[in-house]
């Protein structure tokens, strides 16, 4: 279903209309397809359907897909508001989806917020530091980008360059 958002939705609708009850994996696949095809309204409609009919079955994957879907569309505030409504703690995947969208759309404020959570959840994941630095660089905040690299050094994520003596 990857890359075929409209086909995924069509097959999903046929499945539901024929009486087959979709499971969590089916919902995840269709939400993912909507996100990658830019079908934001369709993805929101499906997610709202899930909230009404499957709320007990909502998983991290579903929220991650929705944050990614909204983030790709530049609707970062909506993505963050969705995170705040979750009934369980957001995972590193959810914060990572928001951080990735913040890089694309150069949103410093939500990028910093996402990164702070990711630094707590995955303190040794260098990718999170690099993405925050990338946001700072994109908006010309060079000192902040350098501070991220220094922070990586402080927590031991960047080794000092090796030195050798040739004699």
TrEMBL record:
Highest taxon above the source species: Eukaryota
UniProt KW Repeat keyword: yes
Ranges of the PPR repeats in the UniProt entry: 23-53
PROSITE patterns: PPR
Alphabetized UniProt keyword annotations: Repeat
Gene Ontology molecular function: any one: RNA binding
The keyword Repeat belongs to this UniProt entry's keyword annotation: yes
GO biological process: RNA modification
Name of the protein: Putative ovule protein
